[in-house]
Amino acid sequence: MATAMMREARIHSAVAAAVRLAAGAPGVADGAAHWPTVFQVAMRELVAPLAWARSRRFIQRHADEDTTGAWRRAAMATHLRAQRQLSITRDTVRAMESRGVAAVVLKGLPLGERLYGDAFVRSSSDIDLFVAAPQRTMASVALRSLGWMSDDGAPPWHEAWSREGAEGREHLELHSSLVCDHLAHLRVAAPAVRQREVGGEPLRVLDGPFLPAYLAVHLATHQMPPLSWLLDFATLWSSLSHAERDAATTQAKASRVQRYLAWANTRAGLLNRVIDGDDTALGPLGFGRDGRRDVHSVVRHLSLAASVRDRLHVLAAFAVPRKARASVGELVRYSLARVRTRFGSLAGERRSYDASELATTPSWTGSGPRPLRVERTEMVSLVREVVYAGGALRVRAPGGSMLPTIPRGALVRIRGVPDRGVEQGNVVLALTADGEPVLHRVIAIDGEVLITRGDAALADDPPTPRSRVIGVATHVSYLGTERELPRRAPRSLSVAALKLRRRLARAVRRGG
User: Fold this and answer.
1) What is the pLDDT of residue 66?
2) Which of the listed residues 7, 307, 357, 363 has the most CB atoms within 10 Å of its CB?
3) 3-state DSSP assignment of residue 29
C-alpha cells in the first residue's frame, strides 16, 4: 500500500509539474520532481515543446543533464516538424485555391500562433482542413495532384489522407463539418474565417464565436485526449472577454452543444487549479494510482447530448456510421473491423504512468534500457545511435501484428545485431522499402534477404535486405513483467480467431 501511494504521489507530482511548466508557472516544489518522469509525462501529454518554450530556464536549472538534453531535442524536433507542416499546408491550400476550393485551416499551427504566440510550439501530427461539402470533389483532385492518397472515409464525412514525404509519412484530414460524424445530425453553421499570418504565411483559419465550442467538441470526441488540448481550451477561454464568452455560449446553444462547452469549462477550471498549485484537482481529471483513466468517447457523447433525441442519433451513428450505410458490403466490412477492435467495449481506457513504462533513474548510463517517447522518424535515428554504440533501449509496440508474443502497447528491448548475425526466429526492428519501421519475426533467410512476418499476420512481409535491420528485439515488458522473447511464435486460440476474422474480412473485400 505504501509503495502504491508513493507511486501515485510521484505520478501526481510529475503531471502537475508538466502542466505548470507548459503554463509557464513552475513552482518551487516542481524543482524537486522526478525529472525523467516529468519529461515522459510531458511528452505523453504533448506539452513538452510548449513547456520548453515557456520554462526552459527552470528545466535547465533543476533537471538532470540527460533529461535536459532530451527535452531540448524534443522541442527542436517539434519546431522543425512544424516548419515542414507549414510548408505542406501552404502548398496544399494553394493547390486547392487554384481549383476554386476555399480551404480553412483548423487547429494546428494557427491555434499555436493565436494561443501561444508561436506556431511551432504546439505538437500536431496532422493537418486538419475544412472544405465545404460541394467542393470536396475538387479538393480531392487537388490533393491527388500533390501525391496524397485517401486512406479512410469519403465525402461529405471525415476523410483521412496520407503520402510519403521526405521526412516520413505525412497526414491530412478533410472535414465538411465543425463537429464529428457522430454529431452530424446537429445543425452547425459554416465556420467563421479570418486571414491570419501563421509563421509568416497568410492562411484562412477558423475564428469567431463557435471556436470555443469547436475545441470543446473536439476534446470530448477523442479517446484519452492529451492534456495539451485541454490547455488549448483553457488558454483560449481565459483570453476571451465577457462579451465574447456570451457570444460563444449563444453559438453553442444554437448548435445544441452547450453541454460540451460547459463540460470543457469545468475541466479547464480543474486544470487552472493544478496550475495554481492544487494537485488534488488531478483526481477529477482522471489521474489516479494506476495512471490516467477515461471513459469511452461515446459514453461522453451520450452524457453531453442536449436531448434524448440527440442521444438516439449518437447511438445510431456509433452502431452504424453513415459511411458504412452505403451498401451491404460496406456494412459487413465495417462490422468485421469493429469486431476486430472489440466492438462493444465501452469500459473506457487507461494510460499508465507506472515504473514499467518510465525511466526510474535520474540519468541513463547505458547499463539498462530507457523507454522513449518520440516521433517515428526520430525513434529510428535514436535507436540506430544507441544500438550501434553497443547500448540497448526500449520502444513501444503500438499495433497487434505480433500478438500474443508482443501485446499492444508493450515495451520491447532492442539491441544491436549480434556478431553471429540475424537468425531465423529472431524478432527484428527493420525498415520497409518505404522507410517505415516494423517489428516482426524472421521466418526465413535467403542470403542477404530476410523474410519476416508478424506472429498474428496473415501474410509475409515484402523481402527485407539485411542492411535495413536496425536491431534485434530480446525482451518484452508488459504490465510490470519483463520476459525474454521466444524463438518461435506461440500458438494461441485468440490469434487463430483473429486470423480467421481477417481472412473473412479479406474475402468480403474481394467479393465487394
Assistant:
1) 87
2) 357
3) helix
Contact 503, 440 (CB under 8 A): no
387-393 long-range contacts, CB within 8 A, separation 24+: 387/414, 387/415, 387/416, 387/470, 387/471, 388/416, 390/366, 390/416, 391/366, 392/368, 392/474, 393/369
- Answer yes or no: is 28 within a domain: no
Question: Which backbone phi and psi does 483 adopt, to 5 degrees?
Answer: -140, 155
75-84, 263-272, 348-357, range with the lowest pLDDT = 348-357
Are the C-beta atoms of 260 and 267 separated by less than 8 Å? no
Question: Residue 34 in contact with residue 14, Cβ under 8 Å?
Answer: yes
At residue 21 the predicted structure's pLDDT band, cuts being 50, 70 and 90, is: very high
Q: Measured between alpha carbons, how far is 216 from 232 in angstroms, rounded to an integer?
A: 10
pLDDT higher at 388 or 465: 465
- Output 296-301 pairs: Cβ under 8 A, ≥24 positions apart: 296/223, 296/345, 296/346, 296/347, 296/348, 296/349, 297/220, 297/221, 297/222, 297/223, 298/182, 298/346, 299/346, 299/348, 300/220, 300/263, 301/182, 301/183, 301/220, 301/221
393 — phi, psi (to 5°)? -155, 170
Residue 431: give its domain's CATH number: 2.10.109.10
> What value does the mean pLDDT take over residues 90-101?
95
Residue 73 lies in a domain: no
The model's pLDDT over 196-213, given as tens digits with 9 standing for 90+, comes to 999 889 999 999 999 999
Asked if pLDDT for residue 445 goes beyond 50, the answer is: yes
Amino acid at 449: V
Confidence of residue 294 (pLDDT cuts 50, 70, 90): confident
| Burial (0-12, 13-18, 19+ Cβ within 10 Å), 109 | buried
User: Distance between CA 10 and CA 189 in Å, rounded?
Assistant: 45
477 within domain boundaries: yes
**Is the dihedral angle over the CA atoms 334, 340, 341, 342 positive or is it negative?**
positive
Cβ atoms of 79 and 85 within 8 Å: the answer is no
User: What is the number of domains present in the chain?
Assistant: 1
Tally Cβ neighbours within 10 Å of residue 13: 20
Grid cell 510550439 — which residue? 121
pLDDT in tens, 72-82: 988 888 888 88
CA distances from 47 to 12, 216, 267, 360 (A): 16, 18, 17, 21
At residue 173, the 3 state secondary structure works out as: strand
- DSSP H or E stretch at residue 442: strand 437-446
- Classified as helix, coil or strand, 155 is coil
- The parent domain of residue 406 ranges over 376-492
Query: Is 121 inside any structural domain?
Result: no
The number of CA neighbours under 13 Å toward the Cβ of 32 is 3
The residues near 278 (Cβ < 8 Å, ≥ 6 apart) are none
Residue 114 clears pLDDT 80, i.e. is over it: yes
Contact (CB, 8 A) for 191 and 130: yes
